[in-house]
Amino acid sequence: METGNIIAVYNDDKRIALNEFDALMRKTNDYMNKIATLSDRFRGCDAKQLEKETLAAIREQCTNTSFNPSDIELVSGQRFPDIVAGQHFGVEVKSTKENKWVSTGSSIVESTRVDDVGSIYMLFGKLGGIPAEFRCKPYQNCLYDIAVTHSPRYLIDMNVSPENTIFSKMGVDYDEFRLSENQIDTVRNYYKNKMKEREQKAMPWWMGGDIVTSPTLRLWGDRYFTTEEQNRYKAEMLLLFPEEICGSQYDNAALWLCVRHSVINTHFRDLFSAGGQVGFEGQACKAVVGRVKDLAPLVKKLLVGGELEIDMMEYNPSLYHAKDRYVHWVNQVANQLMEVKSLKKYLLNI
Hints:
- It contains 15 helices and twelve strands.
- It is α+β, with helices and mostly antiparallel strands.
């Protein structure tokens, strides 16, 4: 071991350098737990104070290691992680004033991650117990799930087993995930598949990808949307969920309207089924037939214009891959409304 020169060790053998960092963090964890048993020094700490205490503790434990105290820097605030050690290692400091090992962590995007920091450890303080207690593990080994506040954030559990980390559940390595350009999509697809397995109707509200959504929730109604806007949204839903809507199933369309456009409709069924029966070429039909007839030209325009590609790929993949999308959509609708014999011919002639 080359005492006090972690950069040289890292350049020579990254694996040995990581082992050195692991040993330093174990020493620091033991040291802070020893202090906690001898005094109440940590019990009143807020996040910033605990970061400073952790910085001091790590520097204290640099003796007889490859790290110098000057290698340990506090960079918290707008950077991730809170502490950088020897340029290539980091420490994220988290705590709770309760007597438990769980808390909300940092953003999954890690857009403020310090350059060159490859390996990060989590140092977690459980300050609500008597005495306070600390645990330290590799960052990715502490994250069991993802929750959404203003953006997707990791959930921390210092007791989580390796097979139950969020990365194990998603089937992706942490470094592969954090370096991916499609993190949000990966998470979103994971939760969608999870809901399908449970046969639950749900959609993550953050969209991901290149889709832009409104930052505020809005109520459906004439006071908030023009007739043109309302018809556009109805046509989009009919394009994406033709079989469900024509079959009087509205859950996915209602969820999509909320997720995609931040619009809540408390009377969703009325969009397609209100008004009782309608006449169509001499036949009394349910109201949705009239909606299909009125919206079909707009649906065709959306399809010809190549709009809703991403949504179509996800929610109506057979339509997305169809050679003639409008004909395929007409068949989807007609198969759900087979009692209206002339509907298919009418729609194809639009």
